[in-house]
Specification:
Blueprint: E1 12-13, E2 16-17, H1 18-48, H2 53-66, H3 71-81, H4 85-102, H5 108-136, H6 142-171, H7 175-199, H8 223-236, H9 243-252, H10 256-284, H11 286-306, H12 310-338, H13 344-372, H14 375-394
Antiparallel strand pairs: 1-2
Helix pairs in contact: 1-5, 1-6, 1-7, 2-5, 2-13, 3-5, 3-13, 4-5, 4-7, 5-13, 6-7, 6-10, 6-12, 8-13, 8-14, 10-11, 10-12, 11-12, 11-14, 13-14
Length: 403
């Protein structure tokens, strides 16, 4: 097996490698588009189209599964071919075309279909893109690289909801206004694909192409990864859709346009924490950071059980932003630590696939508990599962970094 290559020195922009910077710009533009839509989609479906919480839970569960259903396959093929950029271009392009179709949907079934299909693009691009970041990142600064990328990603997620809020404030909360938001959201999505094609130049990776089939490849990912995957799968059962947090805020008394701002506030929290969390993970080790995220999530769930006023909900959204900043970036950096270069995209893809697969029953369970009993049952169940996951993860041996 050929030894992994050492990345050549990269031109830096604002202290980060040029390629990682431009990947950040791509995610920035994509999230302006995606989050402008997502910030209003739940309320659009419930308040304008009349969808129930069960429909929302089913849609979001299927969307979460869709967003990771092809991750392992795309990661495996990326490792097998040595290609990263091609898969990313296809994934971002597919999502952009799906967003364009949303302009013509004004029924629950149409929006439901859009939400699930659009996430397939995310599933294709995620693992190859993250593997590309891990290849480019400077040694000892992987957490910082992933943190920077997620900071750019969520900076777009701040701007997107604000644009949605501005449009709703100017034109009112009507079907036509929501359709106008969906039209505007397509523009940054198109720009993101243009940036990816013209500003990011992929370099060949000097790794041996994997020969195992997609099923046997799992055995090559190593015991540390396999142990972590099981715990992550369990924790994902507590990880119901963010849409339920927006519904909770709406039930407490936030107006539709205020819910959009609340979503932006969550993204501000995420953005501010991403880089410090990455640097902290590089310094103290990512296992401690991931353990803390499970505990933070459990605390947040407990808080939502008793939250009955706007101030409490605002604080809890800020806490959720801290959790999400760790979860989105540092789990990928942790996988980078415990897997080898030639199987890295496969590992990230399998992680995304397994957790996404569990998100479906998690959201269905939350929707059922919410509808059959009350929101407290949904949050309480999630908090208990998160605590159990934290205990199990705490007993996993500290892994050594792979080459």
């Amino acid at each position: 097996m050929a030894a992994p290559s050492t990345p050549e020195p990269q031109t830096k922009i604002f202290g980060i490698q040029k390629e990682i910077f431009w990947l950040g710009v791509v995610s920035f533009l994509t999230d302006i588009s995606s989050e402008m839509i997502f910030a209003v989609l739940t309320i659009f479906m419930t308040a304008i189209l009349g969808a129930s919480s069960v429909v929302i839970g089913t849609m979001e569960g299927l969307a979460d599964f869709s967003a990771s259903s092809l991750d392992y396959a795309s990661g495996y093929l990326s490792d097998k071919t040595g290609k990263r950029k091609a898969f990313a271009v296809f994934g971002y392009g597919f999502s952009t075309l799906a967003k364009l179709s949303l302009v013509f949907f004004n029924s629950v079934s149409g929006v439901f279909a859009f939400r699930v299909v659009e996430r397939l693009g995310k599933s294709v691009r995620g693992a190859p893109r993250d593997a590309l970041i891990s290849t480019i990142a400077e040694k000892g600064k992987t957490g910082y690289a992933f943190g920077f990328h997620k900071m750019m990603d969520k900076s777009g997620a701040i701007l997107g909801p604000f644009l949605g809020y501005l449009i709703l404030s100017l034109f009112g909360q009507s079907l036509q206004t929501f359709q106008f938001i969906f039209v505007i959201a397509v523009i940054p999505a198109v720009l993101s694909v243009v940036c990816l094609i013209f500003f990011i130049h992929e370099k060949k990776i000097s790794v041996t192409k994997i020969r195992e089939n997609v099923f046997k490849n799992y055995q090559k990912l190593g015991k540390p990864f396999q142990r972590y995957l099981k715990v992550a799968g369990l924790f994902s059962l507590s990880y119901f859709s963010f849409a339920f947090l927006l519904l909770k805020a709406y039930s407490v008394g936030f107006e539709i346009k205020d819910v959009v701002l609340l979503y932006a506030l969550f993204n501000v929290s995420f953005t501010l924490i991403s880089i410090p969390a990455g640097k902290l993970g590089d310094k103290i080790g990512r296992k401690k950071l991931i353990l803390s995220e499970y505990l933070i999530y459990a605390i947040m769930c407990g808080g939502f059980i008793f939250a009955g006023d706007k101030i409490s909900v605002i604080i809890l959204f800020l806490i959720y932003g801290i959790f999400y900043a760790i979860d989105e970036a540092q789990t990928k950096a942790y996988i980078t630590d415990i897997t080898s270069d030639e199987h890295r995209a496969s590992a990230i893809g399998l992680y995304n696939f397994v957790t996404g697969l569990v998100y479906l029953p998690a959201s269905l369970l939350a929707g059922w508990l919410w509808n059959a009993y009350n929101p407290g049952f949904a949050f309480g169940t999630a908090g208990i599962i998160a605590l159990i996951s934290a205990i199990i993860f705490g007993f996993i041996p500290q892994p050594k970094k792979s080459n």
